[in-house]
# Entry
Amino acid sequence: MSRPARARINLRALQHNFSLVQQAAPDSQVMAIVKANAYGHGLVSIAQALPGAAAFGVSCLDEAIALREAGFDRRIVLLEGLFGPDEISLINGYRLDVVVHHESQLQWLAQGHLLHPLDVWLKIDSGMHRLGFAADHVREIVAHLRKIPQIETVRYMTHFSCADDLDNPDTRLQIEVFNQAVAAVDGEHALANSAGILGWPAARADWVRPGIMLYGGSPLRGHTAQSLGLQPVMTLGTRLISIKTCKRGDAIGYGADWRCPADMRIGVAAIGYGDGYPRHARNGTPLRVNGHPATLVGRVSMDMISINLDTVPNAQVGDEVILWGEGLPIDEVAEAASTISYELLCGVGTRVQFEYIS
Ligand SMILES: *Cc1c(COP(=O)(O)O)cnc(C)c1O
# Structure
């Protein structure tokens, strides 16, 4: 048998989550965000399972070309636009949309030779202060854009910094800043990420841009994915490869950080930070063995983790261990590793075997 670390990708759960996007924003077109290999789920397989997406959002040319080469003729948006003037010919040749967020990109486009029409998403900084033009420059920037031959449709977008927190007033302010910035220009609007879609009705405009909710992670602080109706798409699992009985006081793993508080059975599962399981997962991080709750003990190794099997007296070598997914919300694991579901999902390594279930 080969190494048992595997990620099962449930495409029906993905489609269910997509339908929740459509329910929440019935009048919006959906740009499915599939950057970073579809949050670690597999770019092309995920895109193929989303026939209702009007567009795909990616972070670089390689991702966009992979989609085009796989036969997608839908709109593909480079969310950070072009990284240099040398990308113009491929962007144009593959008929990709670009976000324009900085003057340097305007210059490259103005000096480049566009052979085909190019659609642009003008990014407005409504308060996050990461990418985008200041709200009061929008008219001037649009005037610049309009002078560039081949620039066709211009759409407008912004991104939220705090939409996951329903009590944070910044999101409402960001929506106002954006709406004022675009009041005097024509074109479609795109504001909402997953948190915006589920938490901020005023942000559901012509387009929505769901990422994490498609994959079944909760975008809203204090709300579980389950309470929002979201289903986990990735279930990360492996198997027990060793079980031994350790004595009270025995140290487990690197650094001898954790010692058995009593005589107990300790299991070892074949997965570690070399697969994307977080090294900072704390003692007590939840996992499941044979469907029963159990906990991580000791430090995470590159290829292995140790498990307290007190709660699973019948556990045997070969039994299934679930790290997150069905039966174990990834948000709980992320919390125990002081991170977010996004990072865990993106980090799943190429060593893990992927299995798609439709
Ligand atoms: C990643 C990204 C999204 C999706 O965000 P989620 O929080 O995962 O829904 C939306 N818009 C832009 C511009 C992004 O970069």
